[in-house]
Amino acid sequence: MIGLLRDYVRSFIVLDMPKFLDLLPILEKNCFELTKLSKMKIAGTLDHILTECIEATLAGTEMDFRNQLITLLNSHLNRKLTLSEIARRMSLSESHLERIVNQKFGCGVIDLFNQLRINKACSLLTNSSLRIESISEQLGFYDTAHFSNFFKKKTSMSPKQYREYKRLLL
Questions:
Q1: Which of 52, 87, 102, 169 has the fewest CB atoms within 10 Å, i.e. is most exposed?
Q2: How far apart are CA 114 and CA 144, in angstroms?
């Protein structure tokens, strides 16, 4: 148990888990008896509490990872990021990062980055009057032709067609 606590609880945390308050009298009673059965009950109860706390911590960590990655990628939409650069910034190996991102997002890291770039392009095309050249430059594409080809491959429309289509819908 001490090893698990050392691995997962890095600082003192007051838990907001009122459901465990009902277990305190049971723990207290078993602590006074100290029979083999009561020791097993104590161990079982503590295992249950520890497991739930660790699961709650890991759930928060998963969300932190997602938010950290999305924030990192969004802050670099104006240039081309490489897998090795993203992995270095996330303090993970490339293969481990790919594996985690695939589990959590269902695609690779660069695919996720490119999807965020397309989402940003769609938003700019819909909600601004920026020229396509400016959007291309703002999203770090080599030139407007590269941006247009990339956009069309991902959305089945050119940026100009997409903008006109969205204006018709509004």
A1: 169
A2: 16
Residues 6+ positions from 153 with CB-CB distance below 8 Å: none
Residue whose token pair is 């081309």: 80
The set of residues, in sequence order, having a beta carbon less than 8 Å from that of 56 and lying 6+ positions away, is 15, 17
One-letter amino acid at 102 equals N
Place of tokens 């990192």: 72
Question: What token pair was written down for 20?
Answer: 């465990």
Structure tokens at 127: 């909600």
**Whole-angstrom Cα Rg for the chain:** 25
Spatial CA neighbour of 20 closest among 43, 53, 55: 53
Residue closest to 104 by CA, chosen among 70, 154, 55: 70
User: How many C-beta atoms surround the C-beta of residue 4 within 10 A?
Assistant: 13
Residues in the chain: 170
5-27 confidence digits (pLDDT tens):
556 555 545 555 666 767 777 77
Q: Which pTM does this prediction carry? A: 0.62
Enter the tokens of residue 98.
Answer: 């790919």
Residue 108 has, within 13 A of its CA and on its CB side, a CA count of 8
